[in-house]
Specification:
The chain is an alpha/beta fold and about 550 residues long. It contains 25 helices and 10 strands. The chain folds into 4 domains: about 5-135, Rossmann fold, CATH 3.40.50.2300; about 150-315, Alpha-Beta Plaits (2-Layer Sandwich), CATH 3.30.70.270; about 325-425; about 445-540, Homeodomain-like (Arc Repressor Mutant, subunit A, Orthogonal Bundle). Helix 19 crosses helix 21 (about 465-475). The radius of gyration is 34 Å and the shape is elongated.
């Protein structure tokens, strides 16, 4: 695909700018002039909005020279290509452009053939860079190289309940999850603490970080000989998600995990204990199996370390598990923060379809709704919102008795979700307005600071420059620079009308170190110079 790249042309001589534009068939060369400016200060503001691919700039200009402009633009957009041109007597000065990674330097007067050749080289560079980003073969290669990392991340997210059905279906292959399996479980292998002598003997150079690597290597060798499994690092432990094809497969998992523990003891003389959760029918419920595996590990105090412990052997089987955690909580809370009312209602409906599909006791429902309340309280606390009377009817632990039915519970959760969403949106809106208000107040008090900028003000307000810039423009309908300029021009007019200060003094008072640039901006704003504006007022 043939790209057309954007160019910002900067020169303080309007005739030179127009001459350069006329000399070249820009479209034929693969470019278009997106903007032009007569000085570096104006060019910087234009570049912020346009994000051009190429900046062509003269070296010697008023207010801000081409080198400073190039430095600030490349800081803002490191991928921009700089083309610097200047007179022969400025050659030594312009060599500094090389430090700004200028792609070319051209002497004035600009020769059309030389410029076309330079543009061709720039286009070739840009084509190569864009093509590299789009190159599917390269992306595929990167993807293949990244598969182990992606698998690790997917497995951790899955056993922590941070994967929804759509994500699971997309990533089941890379995670080695068979969606048609009879069931699934999680095993965790953990090195026993306080084994310094053993680990020192195993790794005399104190490379203890290699122990989990060794443990995973052994697990990868042994576990697949028993069951279909995918292993991953889980903190200091090694985790395993196992596909089960019949109920008896859980016995294979126990044997496999025990084999790993015994091998680590025999070869490396370190004690490793395995914890195994009970089977779950749905891979999205693996977070419960992971928690059970962690619980199983805690039983080593009773049953001994250095072996596999299956939770189903040491705890009575549960008829049903219902928890408001993991993806359930994440999805509802995200929907409350960002979703529409319809999507919030749909998410609540989805939760209750899950609840209604299970035979649950009042006690289980009670725990579930206590978890719901805690999740809401955490969300409100995050936004520093006082809950007020929002949850008064749930202060008692007897949630189900007070709600009386699942239909009432669904109605309650829907109302609370929508109410919380409205409160958060209002808080977020107030927060944005507060940032804008503080910014305006600071600008009114400090407009005379010549170093006042988006970066400086965003640092004072403790937000990022990009966020502040876009927020300010959205709230005020003008950019930060335009708003600040308006304040400065109003103050300049006020000083011109009420004092006898010289123009350069007024320039300094309203934040312009260069009086010539102040006059340039003033004339651009009011159509006349500061001196003429004052004379016009005196003659009126």
């Amino acid at each position: 695909m043939d790209m057309q790249y954007t160019v910002l042309l900067v020169d303080d001589d309007e005739e030179v700018r127009e001459g350069i534009i006329r000399k070249i068939d820009w479209e034929r060369c693969g470019f278009k002039i997106a903007g032009s400016a007569g000085n570096g200060s104006d060019a910087l503001e234009i570049a912020e909005n346009l994000q051009p691919d190429v900046v062509m700039t003269d070296v010697m200009m008023p207010f801000m020279d081409g080198l400073e402009l190039g430095e600030r633009i490349t800081r803002m957009n490191p991928e921009v290509k700089l083309l610097v041109f200047s007179g022969a007597d400025e050659f030594e000065y312009a060599q500094k452009a090389l430090r700004l990674q200028a792609v070319e330097y051209i002497l004035k007067p600009v020769d059309a053939d030389e410029l076309r050749a330079t543009l061709a080289k720039i286009k070739e560079t840009l084509d190569t860079e864009y093509e590299a980003r789009r190159n599917l073969a390269t992306l595929r290669e990167h993807y293949i190289d990244s598969i182990p990392v992606i698998r690790e991340q997917t497995m951790v997210a899955l056993v922590e309940g941070r994967v929804d059905l759509e994500q699971l279906e997309k990533k089941s292959g890379i995670a080695q999850i068979d969606l048609d399996a009879w069931g699934y479980t999680v095993g965790l292998l953990e090195l026993e603490p306080n084994q310094k002598n053993a680990t020192d003997a195993m790794f005399p150079n104190h490379d203890e970080v290699l122990i989990p690597v060794t443990l995973k290597q052994i697990a990868d060798e042994i576990l697949p000989t028993y069951v279909k499994v995918s292993t991953f690092y889980y903190g200091d432990m090694v985790g395993a998600v196992v596909n089960l094809y019949q109920e008896e497969d859980i016995l294979k998992v126990i044997k496999a995990m025990d084999h790993v523990c015994k091998t680590m003891q025999k070869i490396y003389h370190v004690v490793v204990t395995g914890g195994i959760g009970t089977a779950c029918k749905n891979a999205l419920e693996l977070r419960y199996a992971r928690k059970e595996a962690q619980t199983a590990l805690s039983y080593r105090v009773t049953f001994g370390s250095g072996q596999a412990i299956y939770l189903g052997d040491v705890e009575p089987q549960k008829t049903s598990v219902l928890q408001f955690q993991g993806s359930d909580e994440t999805e509802l809370m995200e929907m409350i923060k960002l979703g529409s009312e319809d999507k919030i209602c749909a998410q609540v409906e989805s939760l209750f379809e899950k609840i209604q599909g299970q035979m649950l006791t009042n006690g289980q429902l009670e725990v579930y709704f206590i978890e719901v309340k805690i999740a809401f309280m955490r969300l409100l606390q995050y936004y520093e919102i006082e809950p007020g009377n929002m949850f008064d009817e749930m202060e008692s632990l007897h949630v189900v008795d007070e709600i009386h039915s699942l239909l009432e519970a669904k109605r309650w959760l829907t109302e609370k979700s929508l109410e919380t969403s409205r409160v958060i949106r209002e808080t977020r809106k107030n927060s944005r307005s507060m940032i804008t208000t503080k910014a305006k107040e600071y600008m009114l008090e400090n407009y005379g600071d010549e170093e006042l900028s988006v970066e400086k003000l965003s640092s004072i307000l403790h937000v990022s420059p990009n966020y502040f810039s876009s927020l300010f423009k959205k709230e005020m309908q003008v950019s930060f620079i335009a708003y600040l300029t308006e304040i400065r021009m109003k103050k300049a007019v006020e000083l011109l009308e009420t004092t006898d200060d010289k123009s350069y003094m007024i320039a300094q008072k309203v934040g312009y170190a260069d009086p010539n640039y102040f006059s340039h901006v003033f004339k651009k704003h009011f159509g006349v110079s500061p001196q003429k504006y004052r004379k016009r007022g005196e003659s009126a």
